[in-house]
Amino acid sequence: MPLVQTTPYNISPLGGWDSPLSSAVYLGFTRYNTCGCPNSMSQALGGHIVDGGTKVFWADNNGDRIWVAPLLTPYDGSSLSMVGVWDLAMGGIDNGAFGIRVKPDGSRFFVAGTQNDSIYQFDTATDFSAVGATHTGTRTAQDGENVRNLDVRPDGKKMWIIDSAAISIHEYDLSTAWDISTAAFTGKSAIPGATHSSFNGGRFRPDGTMFYGLSGGNKRLYKYLLSTPWDIDTLSYSGEQLILGTGSGETANDVDWNPDGTRMEIFSNAGFRSYSVPLP
Predict the structure, then answer these.
(1) Contact 94, 64 (CB under 8 A)
(2) Cα(189)–Cα(183) distance, integer angstroms
(3) Strand runs (DSSP E) across 164-233, as ranges?
(4) Mean pLDDT lowest for which of 189-193, 218-222, 235-239, 243-247?
C-alpha cells in the first residue's frame, strides 16, 4: 500500500498501530552501557527518535542533562552508537528532567521537569544537536499538576502533560507553534481507563487517532482510541495492553515508532526494548 505524504511523517493508511498489541514480537534488549554509554549517563528516562530515525534524544534526571546519540540503522534501538554522543548540562534549571520532545526540524526541543513541574524550551545551535543549545523559555504547569512527561503534536500547536500523581493527561494549546511562552491550558484533562501504576509517559499515534500510555510500575503499554483525532475528551481504553517484561529495577518511560508503526522502541532507564509489529 503506498505511503501518504504528510508533515512531518510518512503515515500509511494502515500501520502497525492498527494491529493488536498482542501481535507485537519482542526483538531484544539493548543496554546503554554496552554501547559505550558514558558513566555519567545514569538515569536516562523519556526520549524521542528524530532526524529520519538517525538520532535519539534522552532526558536524564540524575545528571540534569540531555543526551543525543546516533542510531546507525534508522529507528532501530539495537543500532545505538555512543560514538559521537552529545550532551547538554541544563545548568541546574531542573534536577528532574524526565521527558523530551523535539521540533520536527530539530531547531528546538521541550523538556519536562519533575522538580519544578515545568516544561522548558531550548533552542539548538545546530539542528538535532544538544551542543550549544540555550534555554529560551519556561511554562510552569497549572496548579496541582505533577509533571512527569509530555507529548507535542507535530505541528507544535498542541501539547499534553503527563501527570503521574493524578494519573491523567492535561491539554495545552500553543497559539504560536512550538513556542512555550504561548502555551495555555485548555481546561481539558483525561484520566486513562486502564490501571496505571506510575504513569510515566505517553505518545499519540502521528494522526492523533490513538494514544499509548506507559505504566512504569507494572511495566505495561496500554492502547487508547480517540474517536475524534487529538481530542482527549473522546479518549477511551481499547482493552489492549502489552506486558513489557522489563527487568528488576527497570522502568518503562517512553515509546516511539518508525513511520509505519512496524518497529516500536520502549525507552527504559537501562536501554531500548525493541518490538516488531506486523501490518494488519
Answers:
(1) yes
(2) 15
(3) 168-174, 183-190, 199-204, 210-215, 220-226
(4) 243-247
74-110 pLDDT per residue, tens: 999 999 887 767 778 787 888 889 999 999 999 999 9
Cell digits of residue 186: 485548555
Look at the block and give the residue holding cell 486502564.
194
Non-local CB neighbours of 272 within 8 Å, separated by 6+ positions: 29, 30, 77, 78, 80, 265, 266
* Cα–Cα dist 6/208, whole Å: 13
Q: Between vectors from CA 160 to CA 159 and to CA 166, what angle results, nearest 5°?
A: 160
d(CA 246, CA 239): 21
Residue 265, phi then psi, degrees to nearest 5: -120, 125
DSSP 51: T
Distances (CA, A) of 43 to 33, 39, 96, 147, 274: 11, 10, 10, 17, 19
Q: CB count, 10 Å around CB of 132?
A: 11
Predicted local confidence at residue 3, as pLDDT:
28
**Whole-structure pTM value:** 0.91
C-alpha cell at 170: 492535561
- Assign 78 to helix, strand or coil: helix
For residue range 164-211, list pLDDT tens digits in order: 888 899 999 999 999 999 999 999 999 887 666 688 999 999 999 999
Cis omega (within 30 of 0) for bond into 2: no
Q: Which three cell numbers stand for residue 178?
A: 512550538
Tracing cell 516544561 back to the chain, one arrives at: 119
Reading the block at residue 207, the C-alpha cell is 494522526
